[in-house]
Design goal:
The structure holds two protein chains of two kinds. Chain A contains ten helices and 24 strands. Chain A is of the alpha/beta class. Chain B is mainly α. The longest helix of chain B is centred in the last third of the chain and has 22 residues, at 32-53. The chains are: A alpha/beta, B mainly alpha. Bound molecules: flavin-adenine dinucleotide.
Amino acid sequence: MARLIVMGGGVSGHTAATFAKKWLGNEHEVVVVTPNSQWNWIPSNIWVGVGQMNKEDVVFPLAPVYEKAGIDYRQAKAISIHPYGNKQSDKEYITIEYTGQGKEGQTEELTYDYLINATGPKLNFDATPGLGDGKGQMGSNTVSVCTADHAVHANLELQQIFEKAKKGERQKILVGTGHGMCTCQGAAFEYIFNIEHEAKKAGVRDMLDIKWISNESFLGDFGMGGLHMKVGGYVVSSKLFAESLFSERDVPWLIGAHVSKVEKGKAHYELLDGTTGVEEFDFAMLIPPFAGVGFKAYDKEGEDMTDVIFAPNGFMKVDAKYDAGAYENWKASDWPRTYQNPTFKNMFACGIAFAPPHLISKPASSVNGTPINPTPPRTGMPSGIIGKAVAHSVCDMIKNGAENAHLHEASMAEMGAACVASAGKGLTTGTAAAMTVYPVVPDFEKYPGTGRDTDYTFGEIGLAGHWIKHILHHLFIYKAKLKPGWTLIPE
Amino acid sequence: MAKKEEENFAKKDQFTLTMIPSGFARKMRTCVIWQFIRFIAINIKMLVVVSKSH
Ligand SMILES: Cc1cc2nc3c(=O)[nH]c(=O)nc-3n(C[C@H](O)[C@H](O)[C@H](O)COP(=O)(O)OP(=O)(O)OC[C@H]3O[C@@H](n4cnc5c(N)ncnc54)[C@H](O)[C@@H]3O)c2cc1C
């Protein structure tokens, strides 16, 4: 009997673990180690952050689902990896620290035959002074929608702003990225337009100044170097669409901005041209930069070998080309295909946890040398697809032997992504921007010009996107609960 | 008199060089019949992208 441990029960890890268990059956063991007791459909946190959904609508308890599936669930944080075992045994293991199940604070060693790292991002608030609390958590100057609890808190703060606006006090709202190296601009984009929509509904839009601040070098970059869409006989850059949308909703933008410090009501920033400034606010939602969750790895003697397995940013090294060099040399083929760790063939990473080879957007830094560019997004669809591919590879390795197994491939340069950014939640009011991009990582050899297939890269605004967002919300929660037919729902 | 849909575009210098959706384009975004057709079309496109990605 082989044991697969999946670290992280989010979008990618949950997909990997549930498919692995389905394919492996009871002959082999699948263990999920994740600190949360509930699964969260993160994209719908946006609606929680504007009071259109409750926390309960976007989460469900993991224990019954894993029990039904026959998955060994440990509500714990993985702490360290020991791929050579220790002085007593050659068997590879990880250490975990429980966060629930009545064993809070207890540590344990879990041996493994295969290991999948799907621990997503560490929300690195402390990278920007004042954005974090100095202890690794979100500070009190801004809000976030990255977790369901953050979103609940964001909505409480937002409602106070609306109340003040109703009383005739002009309020300033700032939304965007809280550091020069952030990703996830799409989430902030969705949040700002949901706020704008709710403000109109509440009759307070005229009392609000709503502003966007981000590290993108142009509006509509989204960490993907932007995208081109066919419209009216032209192939049009997302920059034009984004600028039009922001103008239409009276939302000015500050781009190429590294937020260097946050204080109560003030965001200090540096721009690409080296100038600095301060943006004042009454309410700010600034996405923190992401890093790996900070695992340690040790050899048999207990010596630190973290840098063998992890890149300096804490993400796990996989089969990517990490020495591609300057932007001019970047190729689609630099991106990983199997997500197998190059040193340890029984170790994989999926979702946000893998180390990308480089950015997707063109690198940029201010004249003072501060890097100000979006890091690559790994949204829900790629995270799910990669999780499934990695599970498939591990299952083949277990069943056919590591040497004979076929490793499944899921390169982000050959994969699309579908994204819907809502603005409002009603079925007949509000609008959404529905987008697909193919491939996520542009391939300028295959698609000279825009780097993408413009037949499958498109975007449009309308109610239809709203309906799709609603359907996706219910479909993905249904799938994650492993309800009948769950395997038929694509990632 | 300025058309309603164009009003915001004069509010900031930053906005003046952008595309302005026409009143018709804006109406179609919330026209249920048209959006139902787009719903089908977008779903088909998304399904193609999903199938090309697996
Ligand atoms: C507000 C917001 C809105 C978004 N909207 C969209 C959208 O509309 N469409 C879209 O495609 N994508 C969206 N995304 C992105 C999407 O949520 C991510 O792509 C996806 O969650 C990544 O999956 P993951 O499994 O890599 O990470 P996660 O889903 O974050 O899962 C990581 C898991 O690992 C666990 N973990 C952390 N540390 C440890 C540890 N030490 N040991 C064990 N487990 C650990 C975490 O608790 C978590 O359960 C959004 C993101 C945000 C923040």
